[in-house]
Design a protein that fits this description.
The protein is mainly alpha-helical. The chain is built from 2 helices and no strands.
């Protein structure tokens, strides 16, 4: 099975946003992580789950394929 490489189409604004996140010591529990959690919860119509709980977390991956 051959898996082709995907050529990304990141815009400068996306690259800047990524740089902002990875320049902090907290990739998943920082301000941007909380904002993403809130956006996902709003999209699915659920309440936001606090990041500091021991409850199972939900991971969402997206693709434009």
């Amino acid at each position: 099975m051959q898996v082709d490489f995907i050529h990304h189409d990141l815009k400068p604004s996306a690259a800047d946003a990524i740089a902002k996140v990875i320049s902090t010591p907290f990739l998943t529990s920082g301000v941007v992580g909380r904002e993403v959690e809130e956006q996902i919860a709003e999209y699915f119509g659920t309440g936001r789950q606090p990041s500091n709980t021991s409850l199972p977390q939900i991971v969402v991956a997206t693709s434009n394929l």
